[in-house]
Design a protein that fits this description.
Elements: H1 12-23, H2 26-38, H3 42-70, H4 74-82, H5 84-119, H6 128-140, H7 142-162, H8 164-191, H9 196-204, H10 213-226, H11 233-239, H12 247-275, H13 285-296, H14 301-335, H15 339-359, E1 368-369, E2 372-373, H16 374-401, H17 403-410, H18 418-443
Antiparallel strand pairs: 1-2
Helix pairs in contact: 1-8, 1-12, 1-14, 2-12, 2-14, 3-4, 3-10, 3-11, 3-12, 3-16, 3-17, 3-18, 4-5, 5-7, 5-14, 5-15, 5-16, 6-13, 7-8, 7-14, 7-15, 8-12, 8-14, 9-12, 10-18, 11-14, 13-14, 14-15, 16-17, 16-18
The structure holds phenylalanine (PHE).
């Protein structure tokens, strides 16, 4: 049955960077800066950090523990741990990864297009109208959008075809440190602009009137999305973990790096946006319209733009790779396909399925579901329903159904204090399910 059950990460640091690579994606670089800004700055960031280090980390630990004790695809791991009902939920997480990747790849394609434009010097202009029109023209042009989606998907499949160690781990080991270095270089440029302080205030100043239930719930939803919880990724990555890797400690590192990247992304964008009097609430257009505009007005902006777009591509690629690995591992284990064939099958089918999302901005925009075009609908369902449901399933499995197995995995390398084990158990049994239900209810 299994074709890769003996595959293991080459090193602990390689695994941590691959896990962080999954977590650090467009969510950190694109969503975080404007979400933090529009949700009250510190009133969003403090709960986000709090949720990440409590419930987020506990769910990461649970996913990795289920993955390592199950040793197989996400579906297989949930099945051997919890029986047939969990097998269905496991398949559900695989489907969820597949669907997320289908539209994530479209955005990945935009990132590559913007990177190439910035390299040949065609991106940066100081006319916001041209930038908006260029972005609009890109997303509504079906064939062009399909072509960039195809290119991004090809890169993702290329990495996955190379395998866990030679593909995912190697890419993460080179690209993640590069990402952090580039972010720091851009931050140096951004925070030294005159007027940058207002951007820092916008991001970090605690405005007590912004401490609202809604902002706190948004922070919680963002925590799940940003740690890639609930779509089988850490369960799949956990299957490749050697027994001598300490799961709680690695989860702490992954969470820390994810938070660090979000904050760096905020620091990279917001001070510059404010220094140049742009609108911080530009929302999704912030990265593709406002940021190029900002770069057009600062010294060495053209170089910074290239760096910034490399960051976007790297972040998107390492997350996309993690999504595809979930599906490929499933096809290898459950369908008995070789890695090459499984990747090829995903390559072809995702081109078409993702193509529908790529077309949904232009010609396809007349077809809507619940008032949303296909791209928005899939993003909405995955973020608000399938990912939280996946997280809930793992929490119940690891906390109620198989706590003994989870506890054993947590303490396999070193025995953690009883109090910590109790906290994790309580979080998995009560806290996480309760919070996830709230996230789903408010999301819908
Ligand atoms: N965590 C990723 C990000 O922040 C998004 C993601 C979600 C990636 C789910 C994979 C799976 O962009």
């Amino acid at each position: 049955m299994s074709t890769n059950s003996s595959t293991q990460w080459g090193s602990r640091i390689g695994f941590i960077l691959a896990g962080a690579g999954s977590a650090i994606g467009l969510g950190a670089i694109w969503k975080f800066p404007f979400w933090a800004g529009t949700n009250g700055g510190a009133a969003f960031i403090i709960p986000y950090i709090f949720f990440t280090f409590t419930i987020g980390i506990v769910l990461l630990i649970a996913e990795l523990a289920v993955g390592r004790s199950g040793r197989g695809s996400a579906m297989h791991a949930l099945k051997v741990t919890g029986g047939p009902v969990f097998a269905v939920l496991g398949s559900f997480t695989v489907l969820s990864s597949y669907i997320i990747l289908s539209y994530y790849s479209v955005v990945g394609g935009w990132c590559i297009k913007y990177l190439l434009d910035s390299v040949i010097g065609r991106l940066v202009t100081n006319d916001p109208k041209i930038l908006s029109a260029n972005f609009e023209a890109l997303v509504t042009n079906g064939p062009v959008n399909l072509a960039w989606h195809f290119i991004f998907l090809s890169m993702t499949c290329g990495v996955i075809a190379l395998g866990v160690v030679k593909g995912i781990e190697r890419v993460a080991k080179y690209l993640m440190p590069t990402l952090f270095i580039l972010m720091i270089l851009i931050i140096i440029r951004s925070v030294t602009l005159p007027g940058a302080g207002i951007g820092l205030e916008f991001l970090f100043k605690l405005d007590l009137s912004s401490v609202t239930l809604e902002n706190i719930l948004n922070a919680m939803g963002f925590t799940f999305f940003s740690l890639s919880i609930g779509c089988g990724i850490m369960v799949t990555y956990g299957a490749y973990l050697p027994n001598n890797t300490d799961i709680p400690n690695s989860s702490l590192w992954i969470s820390y790096l994810a938070i660090q990247a979000s904050i760096l992304a905020g620091l990279m964008i917001m001070p510059a946006v404010f220094a140049l009097g742009q609108d911080p609430n530009a929302g999704p257009g912030l990265v593709f319209v406002t940021v190029p505009l900002v770069f057009s007005q600062i010294p060495f902006g053209a170089v910074a733009a290239v760096f910034f777009n490399i960051c976007l591509v790297v972040a998107a690629l390492t997350s996309a790779v993690s999504l595809l690995e979930v599906v490929v591992a499933y096809l290898q284990h459950e369908w008995g396909l070789t890695r090459g064939r499984a990747t090829a099958l995903c390559y072809v089918s995702l081109f078409f399925v993702g193509g529908l999302s790529a077309l949904s901005f232009g010609a396809g925009s007349e077809y809507t579901i619940g008032g949303r075009i296909l791209f928005d609908f899939l993003d909405y369902i995955c973020t608000n329903v399938t990912m939280p449901v996946g997280g809930l399933a793992v929490a119940i499995l690891a906390g109620w159904v198989a706590w003994n197995r989870t506890e054993k995995q947590i303490n396999l390398v070193r025995t953690y204090p009883k109090a910590l084990n109790r906290f994790i158990c309580f979080s998995l049994r009560i806290l996480a399910p309760a919070l996830v239900v709230v996230v789903i209810a408010t999301g819908i």
